[in-house]
Amino acid sequence: MHGFLIDLDGVVYDGDRVIPGAADAIAFLNQHHLPHLFVTNTSSVPARVVWQKLRFLGIEVPLRSILTPMIAARQWIRANGREPVAAFVPRPTLADFEGLNLLPPDVEVGARAIVIGDLGDQWDYRKLNRAFRLLDNAGEQGCLIALGMTRFCKAEDGRLRLDVAPFVKALEHSSYIEPTVMGKPAADFFQQAADSLSMPMSELIMIGDDIYSDIHGAQRCGMRGLLVKTGKFREQDINSDVRPDAILRSIADLPQWIRQQPWSEGLHEKPFVSKVLDAAF
Amino acid sequence: MHGFLIDLDGVVYDGDRVIPGAADAIAFLNQHHLPHLFVTNTSSVPARVVWQKLRFLGIEVPLRSILTPMIAARQWIRANGREPVAAFVPRPTLADFEGLNLLPPDVEVGARAIVIGDLGDQWDYRKLNRAFRLLDNAGEQGCLIALGMTRFCKAEDGRLRLDVAPFVKALEHSSYIEPTVMGKPAADFFQQAADSLSMPMSELIMIGDDIYSDIHGAQRCGMRGLLVKTGKFREQDINSDVRPDAILRSIADLPQWIRQQPWSEGLHEKPFVSKVLDAAF
Question: Residue A93's pLDDT band (boundaries 50, 70, 90)?
């Protein structure tokens, strides 16, 4: 049994353009009952928006097959019994925390999970200090959850701006609490993905366009890493220290690659529904 | 030749109370021309305020014999030719940067030294992001100077609040630039103190009440550490991993301790002025 973790941006779509053949490749996984999960580091919009984007691009998948850092955090918090939650995230993404016991804003005691996202210019001393006090107050009972560890990103004016990691580092240093990171290439995030599929990491294959975050990150967790030459891929990636388990021109070549694998023999060449249709004509 | 670095709070005074005998001990150092410098981690007020406090407590010293993180930063910046300077410090302490080429607020390029102090609730995303952009823009030419690395302190309401270190950590992580720390126990700060006295560390003796910050910090730099049993000293400090080179009941015992040292033979038992006075009566 093999399962697939599939990066979205650069693998299934590139900005607002679908990667040619992506829909067919995903259909192939469905037809052959190969478990798969879409794993993305997006934390600026809720999973439902990612799901709608895929639909808009002609790719129909169940909402539950999309794993974002927020969704992974919610699952981790539930599995580890870490409510109430104090969430330092942009308001729209709170949709992904629906159902969790959320601490009201400004309360500085009582959280057992303190979640840090990219608040951008909404960060101020009072908010960061509140996160610190919540961590300090929670002691052994508390945990610091980082929605990724991106150091900086491009602001709308094209200049660099601070992302989530510096604020997590500030809190880690002041509270002496190590963060649990949700987002590639963190092991906790990949573990959350494996748990979602109820499969061991050793049976999972990560498909991504980032030689470090996707491929190296996956391999360090005992998964295999399959590099696609779309998205942010550059030819020099092939000469890096990281050796992908396979390299595909794009996700369109995934069905062909799977058919070449020794373990693919047990897969039905044609799905049941197609056979019935074939017989009908 | 021996020189002394003397911690202030807990050694010369305790809050608003002078340590009995401190004035005489300092007079002894003056009388015997033993070089000394007062080293404090205070960065919330300018050196002149520390100097006035000493005068108020009956201890007259030259202003230039007080080394605070701000003063050390100014000297370091001058010695290393790192102007212009962007200073993220409380406005009153800017007095200690008088004469330095300071970048106007809001300018996000052109600094060669980015100085981070405890801005408290004046920190916001725009300020921290500005510091990051200045560091990113300066590249190899830039340096990050931290006025101490205190993680948290007590707020006026008695609760803990974030101090300077978490903000330095945020900037270090995002800019990949290691901070130069001005404040005990950082080696850069002790070096600045030694430079101020124009003496090698091997000839310096640090007098402090903090077994880690003062004594261990000094010993790691090749100085000797002399622990006083005043201020924050606790009996269990004696059983810590750190072995002070000597332990005094208080700074009042310093003259007696110096007289017992083999190197004190060359010191005049009585200063010139006293001899004249003795002869006059």
Answer: very high
Question: B-chain residues within 8 Å CB-CB of A117?
Answer: none
Task: Please say if the pLDDT value at position A243 is more than 50.
Answer: yes
Q: Which H helix or E strand runs over B73? A: helix B69-79
- Judge: B132–A171 Cβ closer than 8 Å, yes or no: no
Chain A residues with CB-CB distance to B125 below 8 A: 119-124, 162
In this complex, is the C-beta atom of A160 within 8 Å of any C-beta atom belonging to chain B?
A: yes
Instruction: Please answer yes or no on whether A152 and B162 come within 8 Å at the CB atom.
Output: no
Which tens digit of pLDDT belongs to each residue from A60-78? 999 999 999 999 999 999 9
The reply to whether residue B174 touches residue A152, judged by beta carbons under 8 angstroms, is: yes
Inter-chain CB proximity A173 and B165 less than 8 Å: yes
| Residues B20-65: tens digit of each pLDDT | 999 999 999 999 999 999 999 999 899 999 999 999 999 999 999 9
Is A91 in the same domain as A173? yes
Cβ <8 Å between A170 and B174: no
Beta carbons within 10 angstroms of residue B231's beta carbon: 21
User: Do B176 and B262 sit in the same domain of this protein?
Assistant: no
φ/ψ (deg, to 5) at B52: -65, -35
Residue B123 near chain A (CB below 8 Å): yes
Is the domain of A148 the same as that of A190?
no
ipTM confidence: 0.88
Strand partners for A86: A114
Stretch A13-40: mean pLDDT = 96
- Mind telling me how many Å the CA of B82 is from chain A's nearest CA? 23
Q: In the structure encoding, which two tokens stand for residue A134, read together? A: 């919540």
H or E, element range at B275: helix B272-280
Residue A69 counted as domain residue: no
Q: Answer yes or no: is B46 within a domain.
A: no
* A161 touches B: beta carbon within 8 Å: yes
Residue to mutate among B134, B156, B174, B178, with most A CBs inside 10 A, is B174
Q: Rounded distance, CA B98 to CA B101, Å?
A: 8
Domain of residue B138 covers: 81-181
Rounded Cα–Cα distance for residues A19 and A29 (Å): 16
Q: Would the pLDDT of B272 be above 90?
A: no
